[in-house]
């Protein structure tokens, strides 16, 4: 299909690709734009970003489907509509981290859901406000000094707004906790069914081999999803850690304690990674704003492309760290329920073995270095490599500086506190006296 034979190039233009673009190029363009125009990343004009976000999601839904793309190319947008209608933009953006195939394993990601929550819940701070059934105009302070009654009104207004915001925040927090409980309940049941397939078997080597192969096939199916390998490794890490802690506690007694200490250390490290990733993203975004101010005529295409790449890399890294932390936190609770003392001891033991098997399979999945579809994953890895290289370079410079300082101090000082110069002078005086 050439550009000349496409009836309308609007969808291609929205994604910034040619009509001859490959499926990988279309996916790459969509993922980049989905992050760039996400309303949460555009606080200055969230409505405009939201409109753009919806449009590029619609374009991608058509162009990522071979049949719909063919219809679009030949007849235009009116004849290229999914049978079930266009999906919500959230569903497409959520596919950035696993998507629908991972739902039985990790549930619906709360982080993305919160990011995409409608701004309609927020009340506007301008214009008349409705309170107690009465319309009130915003307070207007005139040139004269405010009267006490005006100050009173202002303080009452502040108290009202503050109370309303606190109540709204409390309601939202309660809602989030309820949603998390439901999510943990659902995932606990999903995982129980999977583990009990082994629990209810004869526990023969052949049964274990069949069980392992089933989840090796599952892992191969899931690894092709966006960030699929990273999510599998996160799931596997939790499963292995929880199963190992339980099995060692039953075998050695103290082994479980050591593994719990290790788990707490891993949680602390993950928390630190989230903070540093968010700070890195903010610093790069500030740098972009600074560059734009310093270059009012605009950056060169090469410089702009490099800055865009760095911003996308940092934002993705921060989003992934938050998502990974959320996934692992939820799964720790799920595993804890299935291995709790409320369950019979023999069932817990077999569930732990099954959990260890699945976890080992998932944790052993690694990316193919030649896989071109891992566009965003490679961006995150590239950012990590840059950071590690910069840290290594800084450490090397520090080591060289420290070594040079030690050498200088070695020649400058001698035991007892005398400098080399003073020691030489003292030796010369002693020699002269003896002579």
UniProtKB/TrEMBL annotation:
The keyword Chaperone applies. The lineage of its organism: Eukaryota, Fungi, Dikarya, Ascomycota, Taphrinomycotina. InterPro entries: DnaJ_domain (IPR001623), DnaJ_domain_CS (IPR018253), DnaJ_X (IPR026894), J_dom_sf (IPR036869), Peroxisomal_DnaJ (IPR052814). One of its GO terms (biological process) is protein import into peroxisome matrix. Residues 390-399, 415-425 have a biased composition (Basic and acidic residues). SMART domains: DnaJ. Gene3D superfamilies: DnaJ domain (1.10.287.110). This is DNAJ domain-containing protein Caj1/Djp1 type. Coiled coil: none annotated. It comes from Schizosaccharomyces japonicus (strain yFS275 / FY16936). SUPFAM superfamilies: Chaperone J-domain. Keywords: Chaperone. The keyword Chaperone applies. One of its GO terms (cellular component) is cytosol. Residues 387-435 are annotated as: Disordered. PROSITE patterns: DNAJ_1, DNAJ_2. Residues 10-76 form the J domain. It holds the Pfam family DnaJ-X.
């Amino acid at each position: 299909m050439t550009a000349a034979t496409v009836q309308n190039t609007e969808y291609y233009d929205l994604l910034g690709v040619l009509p001859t673009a490959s499926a990988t190029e279309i996916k790459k363009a969509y993922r980049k734009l989905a992050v760039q125009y996400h309303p949460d990343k555009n606080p200055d004009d969230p409505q405009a970003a939201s409109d753009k976000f919806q449009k590029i999601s619609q374009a991608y839904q058509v162009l990522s489907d071979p049949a719909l793309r063919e219809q679009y190319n030949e007849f235009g947008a009116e004849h290229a509509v999914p049978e079930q209608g266009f999906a919500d933009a959230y569903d497409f953006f959520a596919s950035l981290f696993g998507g629908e195939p991972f739902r039985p394993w990790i549930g619906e990601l709360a982080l993305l859901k919160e990011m995409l929550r409608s701004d309609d819940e927020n009340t506007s701070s301008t214009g008349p406000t409705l309170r107690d059934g009465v319309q009130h105009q915003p307070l207007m302070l005139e040139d004269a000094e405010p009267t006490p009654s005006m100050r009173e009104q202002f303080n009452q207004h502040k108290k009202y707004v503050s109370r309303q915001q606190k109540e709204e925040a409390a309601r939202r927090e309660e809602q989030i906790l309820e949603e998390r409980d439901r999510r943990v309940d659902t995932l606990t049941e999903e995982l129980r069914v999977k583990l009990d397939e082994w629990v209810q078997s004869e526990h023969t080597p052949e049964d274990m081999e069949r069980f392992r192969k089933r989840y090796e096939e599952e892992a191969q199916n899931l690894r092709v999803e966006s960030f699929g390998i990273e999510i599998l490794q996160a799931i596997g890490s939790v499963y292995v850690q929880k199963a190992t802690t339980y099995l060692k506690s039953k075998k050695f007694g103290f082994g479980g304690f050591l593994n719990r200490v290790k788990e707490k250390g891993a949680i602390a490290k993950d928390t630190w990674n989230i903070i540093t990733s968010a700070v890195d993203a903010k610093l790069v975004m500030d740098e972009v704003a600074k560059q734009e101010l310093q270059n009012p005529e605009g950056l060169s295409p090469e410089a702009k492309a490099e800055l865009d790449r760095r911003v996308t890399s940092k934002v993705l890294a921060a989003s992934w760290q938050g998502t990974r932390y959320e996934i692992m936190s939820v799964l720790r609770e799920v595993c804890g329920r299935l291995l709790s003392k409320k369950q019979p001891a023999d069932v817990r033991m077999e569930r732990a073995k099954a959990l260890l098997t699945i976890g080992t399979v998932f944790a052993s999945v690694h990316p193919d270095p030649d896989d071109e579809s891992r566009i965003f994953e490679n961006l995150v890895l590239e950012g990590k490599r840059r950071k590690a290289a910069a840290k290594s370079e800084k450490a090397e410079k520090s080591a060289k500086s420290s070594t040079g300082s030690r050498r200088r101090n070695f020649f400058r000082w001698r035991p007892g506190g005398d400098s080399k110069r003073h020691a030489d002078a003292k030796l010369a005086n002693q020699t002269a006296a003896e002579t």
